[in-house]
Specification:
27% helix; 11 helices; Aminopeptidase; alpha/beta; 9-stranded mixed sheet; Aminopeptidase i, Domain 2; globular
Length: 458
């Protein structure tokens, strides 16, 4: 090798694909697909997280008896969020990884059921940032809870089991779509046109005006004890009825609904399950509401972490203030970012974008335009993360979420950093984020898991 070639190799940045440990990567992705299949909503994800935590020896924080390094505990917040921890050798500092369990979907309006053209229909209200046209002609499953007038909680899950019916939003045929295709792209399918087919068989009674609607409500009443007013107290979500699948002839990628951000939920969960006695107290946050701004009492913008810190300090008998503990802690906002899409390259700066298969993406900042609505990590913390990654030989890359003034997106980093702790975004890059099926590289998923594991232990 010539002198200048050696110099170039030494000082130029060269991110290479890393498929070392192929069998581990492929094996890890199988467990990931199983989790994704059964965790399509935030309630389902939290239930699965708690099950995994308890199977690994984590106890509810109020039931913890021993308070020594290695003690495992968790706190559930209203069935929508969970914070889990392992007491470290130095209990006065947290190593926090936060991810979010919610994903874009279709919720039902408060009074959704109506009849039109001999069909029972449900009105939806989309949740989070979606391209509305992507959700028509897609098989949908119904999940959620609904309360009867007597206060009984009824759980619904229809469309994901073998043999279940599914639900569909019918698009207009291309033969009749000329007026539709003249609309602006964001108006091709309007929010008020996302109405879901729910039934077609009428009740056999000519005196009834809405025969199909009555037939559908009769079935809901017989099967679940529901009346129409119960929809007002419901939390019902429609999600794609797709199973996670391998993508590519080489099975190198995973295609699934909700990988933003359940890919980070699963990888950080598996990471903390494998930690024994960390140096500092390891904390895994699994929060709701990120896709609508992290608002609400189960979102990262609430004071749940501060309250958890207070509960933790009381549990271990420390006089430290929660604010002091959090200020001296370190955090990763575990979330996905965009990967270069070869079909739409012009929206990204090729020098500052992540690529599938080149490792976990570590981003100093997110936001949009002039770095609005984000956390911009300090150089010192970026240096810490680089050292951690390089020391453990973990493949990583960095970039931005699209070109300036084109891209942008928020994470929970700004809500973690407001406590004064260092925070940075890190997670796998993906294609088709917020679509009914998103694509991730199995190599990047495994790299994220490895980063989260060493961060918890550091």
């Amino acid at each position: 090798m010539k002198k200048n070639e050696k110099l170039q190799k030494k000082i130029f940045l060269d991110r290479k694909s890393d498929w070392g440990g192929l069998s581990k990567i492929m094996s890890f992705s199988e467990g990931y697909k199983e989790f994704m299949s059964s965790s399509k909503t935030e309630r389902l994800a939290i239930a699965n997280i708690i099950k995994a935590l308890e199977s690994s020896g984590f106890a509810r924080i109020e039931k913890v008896k021993t308070k020594k390094p290695g003690t495992k505990f968790y706190k559930e917040i209203k069935g929508k969020s969970v914070i889990a921890g392992i007491i470290g050798k130095d209990p006065d500092m947290f190593q926090v990884i936060g991810s979010h369990v919610d994903s874009p979907r279709l919720d039902l309006k408060p009074s959704p059921l109506y009849e039109d053209a001999g069909l029972a229909m449900l009105q939806s209200h989309y949740y989070g940032g979606i391209k509305k046209y992507q959700w028509v002609n897609v098989p949908l499953a119904l999940h959620g809870v609904i309360f009867t007038k007597s206060g009984k909680k009824v759980e619904l899950s229809i469309g994901d089991r073998k043999g279940d019916p599914v639900f569909i939003i019918p698009d207009i045929e291309p033969h009749l779509a000329k007026p539709q295709m003249e609309r602006k792209p964001n108006k091709i399918v309007e929010g008020e046109e996302l109405n879901i087919l729910f039934g077609n068989i009428p009740i056999d009674d000519d005196d009834i005006k809405e025969q199909v609607k009555l037939a559908v409500m009769k079935r809901l009443n017989e099967d679940y004890g529901l009346i129409e007013e119960d929809f007002n107290t419901a939390e019902l979500e429609f999600v794609p009825a797709y199973e996670p699948v391998d993508v590519g002839l080489d099975r190198s990628m995973v295609g699934a609904y909700g990988q933003d951000d359940k890919v980070c939920v699963y990888t950080s969960l598996q990471a903390i399950l494998q930690v024994k006695v960390p140096v500092h107290t390891a904390v895994a946050m699994f929060v709701d509401k990120e896709e609508i701004g992290s608002v609400g009492d189960t979102g990262a913008a609430s004071f749940m972490l501060q309250t958890f810190a207070g509960d933790y300090l009381s549990m271990i008998g420390s006089d430290l203030r929660p604010s002091t503990l959090l200020e001296h802690s370190r955090a990763i906002s575990a979330d996905t970012t965009v990967a270069m899409n070869p079909n739409f390259k012009d929206v990204n700066d090729p020098q500052n974008v992540s690529y599938l298969g080149k490792g976990v993406a570590v981003e100093k900042y997110g936001g949009g335009g002039g770095k609005y609505n984000t956390n911009d990590a300090h150089a010192e913390y970026m240096s810490y993360m680089r050292g951690l990654l390089d020391k453990n030989k973990i493949s990583w890359q960095t970039g931005e979420l699209g070109k300036i003034d084109i891209g942008g997106g928020g994470t929970i980093a700004m809500f973690l950093s407001r406590y004064g702790m260092d925070c940075i975004d890190a997670g796998p890059p993906g294609l088709a984020m917020h679509a009914p099926i998103e694509v991730m590289s199995k190599a990047d998923i495994y790299s994220a898991f490895r980063l989260y594991k060493v961060f918890f232990s550091d």
